[in-house]
Amino acid sequence: MSELTSNVEKLNSYLQRFQQNGVLNLIGGKSGPAMSGAEFETTSPVDESLICRVARGGSEDIDAAAEAARKAFPAWRDMPAPERKKILHKIADLIVERAEEIALCECWDTGQALRFMSKAALRGAENFRFFADMSTSARDGQQLQSPTLMNVTTRVPIGPVGVITPWNTPFMLSTWKIAPALAAGCTVVHKPAEFSPLTARILAEIAHEAGLPPGVWNLVNGFGEEAGKRLTEHPDIKAIAFVGESKTGSMIMKQGADTLKRVHFELGGKNPVVVFNDADLDRALDAAIFMIYSLNGERCTSSSRLLLHETVADEFETKLIERVNRINVGHPLDPATEIGPLIHKVHFDKVTSYFDIARQNGATIAAGGSRVGDTGWFVRPTLFTGATNDMTIAQEEIFGPVLTSIRFRDEDEALRLANDTQYGLTAYVWTNDLTRAMRFTDKLEAGMIWVNSENVRHLPTPFGGVKASGIGRDGGDWSFEFFMEQKHIGFALGQHKIPRLGA
Ligand code: NAD
Q1: CA distance 128 to 179
Q2: Distance between CA atoms of residues 234 and 62, nearest Å
Q3: What is the pTM of this model?
Q4: How far apart are CA 52 and CA 74, in angstroms?
Q5: 300 carries an active-site annotation
Q6: Does residue 476 contact residue 432 with C-beta atoms inside 8 Å?
Q7: Does 267 sit in the ligand 1 pocket, CB within 6 Å?
Q8: What Rg do the C-alpha atoms of the chain give, in angstroms?
Q9: Residue spans in the chain of domains classed CATH 3.40.309.10
Q10: Is residue 442 in contact with ligand 1, taking CB distance under 6 Å?
Q11: Of 439, 407, 401, whose CA–CA distance to 299 is shortest?
Q12: Among 3, 131, 233, 418, which one is least packed by beta carbons within 10 Å?
């Protein structure tokens, strides 16, 4: 039996329970359908077949989940951190135990290739372990002495929080937000993306099994404009951690304004990879290809704009075209597959619409530029050459396996082009000139920059974007800054002079 056939068989056994019961919400420790009884269908991007029905949560479900989170908050906040730490480690253990189920379900639900998703499940476990270990120091503050006062700062969890996640690598991103919220002592209402509900449900079940008290983690499935909107407006929800499109972030900010919601946004990107002529071109090529074509290009940190020095551009593009044409597009559960189908038809239509836009813009489609097969949302990895930075294909986030190549003459022009975008999430710089690397990165407008490397995530470092790519940072202690309130307490050191009124 081929590995693909065996993976499909395993998947089918994992999917049975979803097909029988649908994907249910989890509120206050109880699983159930939406209160209205409403449902929607989730389909696979591989063959457009129905996977299962999903609870379509509405305002009343969010209200119940927020109430459960509010009631569960004081006990979770006051649980000694070492006990919280044990539960979070238990969640990580159970993720590892169910890693195969998570990976197969995520591939089928999102179209992501198994070669990447099997690692994503384990990275989710690592996120829990990392923040589990940090939970014992979450409340740590500072002592800021002044002549008259011993000034102490402490931190307390902000309260129940809402977590809203997108469909790209949904499992990993959910753990990335929920683990620090729980480690900080917050309770959570999670609204996952409607297009990829399976692994969010598995994750919530795992948390429940790991002994998380009822109400600490609530899951409400549903649409952004319904359940998502209500979550951002709910008065008991003190903060929203959101990952998704920039325009949705803007909407959430408006929706949360009446309740003065604290927001943390991880949004879109149009990230440059800048290749100077003194770079190790072979390594730069590997990294540029990996960063745009892995994960179907449905990746916020993807290097979607390739800026090439004009003296190396011909050679680089020739090698790039050869490699792009050899990338293996196929069934996501086939271990040989490098690119699977895009998430859904609307997104497929959006991504493929850029093929015509590229022609209208006057660029050349040097590789790809077409659909693969006539079932499922498969597209060929695509490269646009002869582009300039003012073209639509260089300015808009396409969010698919589509790379736009642009040439530059000198460092000043490279910097101008790299920064000439509404976004500022990541940037990648390839040069062997250390002084240039320092000068250039200092001026780059991006939240995260890698020099001579692809994106390698180190959990204690800050993750986030500038400009339209986001507000706030995740990772290390930065996550706690968002999920916690700073509190200042001044202790008088002696009898300093207090102004006397009416004396
Ligand atoms: P999206 O903004 O359409 O949806 C994200 C989530 O928001 C979904 O759960 C959706 O239901 C919900 N939502 C939609 N409208 C809402 C509303 N009015 N109120 C509350 N919730 C609402 O994004 P998507 O298409 O699912 O994801 C792709 C986008 O996410 C890309 O732009 C990508 O760059 C971005 N992204 C960014 C990062 C990062 O770290 N910066 C990471 C992953 C994805």
Answers
A1: 5
A2: 8
A3: 0.97
A4: 36
A5: yes
A6: no
A7: yes
A8: 24
A9: 272-451
A10: no
A11: 401
A12: 3
Question: Distance, CA 245 to ligand 1 centroid (Å)?
Answer: 4
Residues 125, 130, 133, 135, CA torsion sign:
negative
Q: In the numeric block, which tokens belong to residue 170? A: 């949904």
Token pair belonging to 126: 């690592």
Structure tokens that stand for 224 in this block: 């952004």
Q: If you classify domain 272-451 with CATH, what class do you get? A: alpha beta
Question: Residue 323 Cα, ligand 1 centroid: separation in angstroms?
Answer: 31
Residue 193 beta carbon below 6 angstroms from any ligand 1 atom = yes
The reported pLDDT for the residue numbered 1 is: 84
The DSSP line for 365-376 is EEE--SB-SSSS
Residues forming CATH 3.40.605.10 domain(s) in the chain? 3-267+469-487
**The pair of three-digit structure tokens given for residue 315, joined into one six-digit string:** 């050679």
Give the model confidence (pLDDT) of 369-387 as tens digits: 999 999 999 999 999 999 9
- Rounded-to-integer distance, Cα 159 and Cα 181, Å: 9
Q: 3-267+469-487 sits in which CATH class?
A: alpha beta
Q: What angle do CA 30, 35, 41 make, to 5 degrees?
A: 95
